[in-house]
UniProtKB/TrEMBL annotation:
The active site is at C72 (glycyl thioester intermediate). PANTHER family: UBIQUITIN-CONJUGATING ENZYME E2. SMART domains: UBCc (SM00212). The keyword Cell membrane does not apply. InterPro entries: Ub_conjugating_enzyme, UBC, UBQ-conjugating_AS, UBQ-conjugating_enzyme/RWD. Residues 1-106 form the UBC core domain. It comes from Cannabis sativa (Hemp). Belongs to the ubiquitin-conjugating enzyme family. Pfam families: UQ_con (PF00179). It comes from the Eukaryota. GO terms for molecular function: ATP binding; transferase activity. This is UBC core domain-containing protein.
Length: 106
């Protein structure tokens, strides 16, 4: 999956279809512009009915990302929909980086 000019991409890692590596480019006009982030996506066997586990592998300083790279994003938790795909997930995380948040990750 390549996002072209959207600044997101993801591909399977090795031979496993359940383990992917994604990249996100910081959004234009944000403090993350010009930065590139590597993420891991681990898909459960019951995907798309359960969300993947997505973590930043590159250190990311954001209120919704903890020191271990875990992301606090509703679509990866209780707001998950089987309609979401890899592109949607990465674009949502990219959007999260550009949004101002005062709530720390939990």
């Amino acid at each position: 999956m390549s996002g072209g000019d959207l600044g997101v991409s993801a591909f399977p890692e090795g031979e496993s279809i359940f383990s992917w590596i994604g990249t996100i480019e910081g959004g234009k006009g944000t403090m993350y512009e010009g930065l590139s982030y590597k993420l891991s996506l681990r898909f459960p066997v019951d995907y798309p009915f359960k969300p993947p586990i997505v973590k930043f592998e590159t250190m990311c300083f954001h209120p919704n990302v903890d020191q271990f790279g875990n992301i606090c994003l509703d679509i990866l938790q209780d707001k998950w929909s089987s309609a979401y795909d890899c592109r949607t997930i990465l674009l949502s995380i990219q959007s999260l980086l550009g949004a101002e948040s005062r709530e720390p990750s939990q």
